[in-house]
Design goal:
Length: 70
């Protein structure tokens, strides 16, 4: 049973996450020639200060306000 873990910065809509699960599941099922019902997908979300790009937090690299800013 294939199990896929997706880690991404928080901020996508429920609809986007549902579409991602469907697309990843279908891609894995096709690639591995297995029924889509056997594919599992987990999404892990992190905040912009918990993700690094080029040695900087995402919040700085992409000019995203810190989570504790009003």
């Amino acid at each position: 049973m294939p199990f896929v873990q997706v880690t991404m910065v928080r901020g996508r809509t429920i609809e986007q996450k549902h579409a991602l699960i469907a697309a990843v599941s279908q891609a894995v099922a096709s690639s591995l020639d297995t029924p889509v019902e056997r594919v599992r997908v987990a999404i892990y979300e992190v905040g912009p200060d918990e993700w690094g790009i080029g040695g900087q937090p995402y919040s700085i690299a992409r000019a995203v306000p810190a989570e504790d800013d009003p």
